[in-house]
Amino acid sequence: MPVIAVDGPAGSGKSSVCRAVARRCGLRYLDTGAMYRAMTWALLTDGVDVDDPHAVAQAAARVVMSSGTDPDAPTIHVGSVDVSGPIRGPEVTAAVSAVSAVPAVRDLLVAMQRAEVESARAVGAGIVVEGRDITTVVLPDADLKVYVTADPAVRAQRRARQDAEQGSGHADVRATETALLERDAKDSSREASPLTQSADALLLDTTTLTLDETVDTLVGMVDSLGAR
Question: What is the DSSP letter of 152?
Fold first, then answer.
């Protein structure tokens, strides 16, 4: 069964697409962005100064986290607490780039992400893993590597709508676009595992595609592996 690695900027639609593809192809699904958000939530809850890399690195080593990989019901827990809702709040969104930039955090979570892939392989299951450094750092030898993106204005519309639906924001598209561009700049310029398109990753621009069209396109890429 294949290992599919998908990267892309915030709001590109990769989470919805990857979940749907995993469901259709009978694969597991791992949202690594949720892991960084969960780490950020844990540190904020413990009162850690997320702008202090040393404090973040020390505190991160004590966080116990687990991720569910069922595409129909993906879960993320810190200890016994289900944080799938709280990690989407504005406080976590504002702080996650700072936490994600700390090399010790990335080392911890990359090891967890690779362990999830090995767990899937051990039982003959495939997996779709999405994030911002999956094709370049976490799974450079994945069977299929894809970079999903979209025009910033389109990404802002999608994220604003999603935030409003989840009750974690309001549909202010202009403010959302500004926040996304700031996040893009931080993710692309950090020293540890910056967001970038791998040289051998296939580009999937979803600007003019519906969700169903995007899913169909990515499923076609998976089918081309001849591994389903």
Answer: H
For the whole prediction, is pTM greater than 0.85? Answer: yes
Radius of gyration of the chain (CA): 17
CA dist 56 and 98 (Å) reads: 9
Give residue-wise pLDDT tens across range 132-175.
999 999 999 999 999 999 898 888 888 777 766 666 555 677 77
Angle subtended at Cα 183 by Cα 9 and Cα 134, rounded to the nearest 5 degrees:
40
**Phi, psi at 115, each rounded to 5°:** -65, -35
Rounded to whole angstroms, what are the CA distances from 203 to 2, 122, 160, 200? 19, 30, 24, 9
Q: Which pLDDT does position 160 carry in this prediction?
A: 75
Q: What is the pLDDT of residues 165-179, one digit of tens each?
A: 666 555 677 777 788
Interior/surface letters 142-170, b for 16+ CB within 10 angstroms, e for the rest:
bebbbbbbbebebbbbbbbebbeeeebbe
Residue at 75 is within a domain: yes
CATH number of the domain that 71 lies in?
A: 3.40.50.300
